[in-house]
Amino acid sequence: MLTRLLDEFTVRNPDCQVTLHVVETRNPYALLRSEDIDVLVSYLVVNQPDLTAGPAIEHRDRVLIMARGHRLAGARSVSVEDVADEEVHENAPGFPGEVYDALVPPFTPSGRPIRRTYPWDDDEDVMTAVARGRILHPGCAGIPLLTRPDLVQVPIRDLPPMPVGLIWRTVHQNARVRALAATARSLNPANYPS
Prior knowledge:
Elements: H1 2-12, H2 30-33, E1 40-43, E2 51-60, E3 62-67, H3 80-83, E4 87-89, H4 97-103, E5 115-118, H5 123-131, E6 137-140, E7 151-155, E8 162-169, H6 175-187
Parallel strand pairs: 4-5
Antiparallel strand pairs: 1-8, 2-8, 3-6, 3-7
């Protein structure tokens, strides 16, 4: 969807140059705040007073990632309640708490705590711990890092899809940012009823 958005934006705005950058997973808003990028494409779970959540460009289904040999690996779907029986990773310093809580709820719907015990040193370490059966990882489908032959993804049936979209610094909203947001809305009109 990002490629489609950028292609359409470039057609509509030929004077704008688009450059893509990969952001640090553990601190996704850093490049926005340092003014190195104008717009971030990330999870639209934003509770930061200086940032604006723009339109969604897609919604990612929720999955529980686990080792191939895990007891839940053959299930057709799982519940958040199943996650309370296991351990997951802690939040990393710098990663927005509201995004972490949306990805890894602190409690199940029945009120059971999700055990956030494994330190998040880096993404690869977490995925290795998952592959070794030490922890589970609630995530979103379609993330390349989470698609490995030693991991299984099982749909989480009681978590809604996670919206992914545009985020920018509120004080830096300008004509280019508004044009990109308008392009995103036009590509997904069902998300934005008039």
